[in-house]
Design a protein that fits this description.
Radius of gyration: 15 Å
Order of helices and strands: HHHHHHHHH
Number of domains: 1
Shape: globular
Number of strands: 0
Structural class: mainly alpha
């Protein structure tokens, strides 16, 4: 049985566009440090193409780690690292829908590192970008830390620290949204 964090392919396509929006918003934080490294930009473009139905899940599953490797090229800049990981998480949505929350959380982390006073603004912006279909799909995900497999697994990277608290906040806001 698949993890509930997978979501259906239809739901993954719906949330991929939103995840790409979140990642693209912080992409300049990466490109400022590594202007010649197009891996995060390409990952965001692939997430959008996947959302449109132009790419298949299998091909994107094989390519999902490419943008994450870009984080190593900016190892001295935590803001750029978070931006690269946001793009990587957006591209990972083709594999598992829960990565959409990872893309959003890493975007919030990038904003928090660059401009700590803008975290609430970023969370509000992310919520405003959600269509009813995106909210509906994201509501199908288990609460962070309550599933035994997948990116939101208890003790996993997305379930702890600033990423975990950000995802908890997003999930609370999604539950309350109409």
């Amino acid at each position: 049985m698949l993890s509930p964090q997978s979501l259906s392919e239809t739901d993954r396509r719906v949330v991929a566009a939103w995840a790409a929006d979140c990642a693209e918003r912080v992409l300049p934080c990466f490109e400022r440090v590594a202007p010649d490294d197009d891996r995060p930009r390409e990952a965001i473009a692939r997430a959008r193409a996947y959302a449109r139905g132009d790419l298949d899940s299998a091909g994107e599953i094989r390519r999902r780690f490419v943008a994450g490797r870009a984080a190593a090229s900016v190892a001295s800049d935590p803001v750029a690292i978070a931006a690269a990981r946001s793009a990587a998480q957006a591209s990972g949505v083709a594999h598992m829908g829960a990565h959409a929350l990872g893309a959003a959380a890493y975007a919030v982390k990038a904003v928090g590192l660059a401009r700590p006073g803008d975290v609430e603004v970023e969370l509000d912006w992310q919520m405003q970008q959600m269509t009813p279909d995106v909210r509906s799909a994201l509501r199908r995900l288990p609460p962070v830390g309550e599933d035994s497999a997948g990116p939101l697994v208890a003790g996993g990277l997305l379930a702890r620290g600033i990423l975990g608290s950000t995802i908890r906040e997003l999930q609370a806001r999604i539950a309350e949204a109409t």
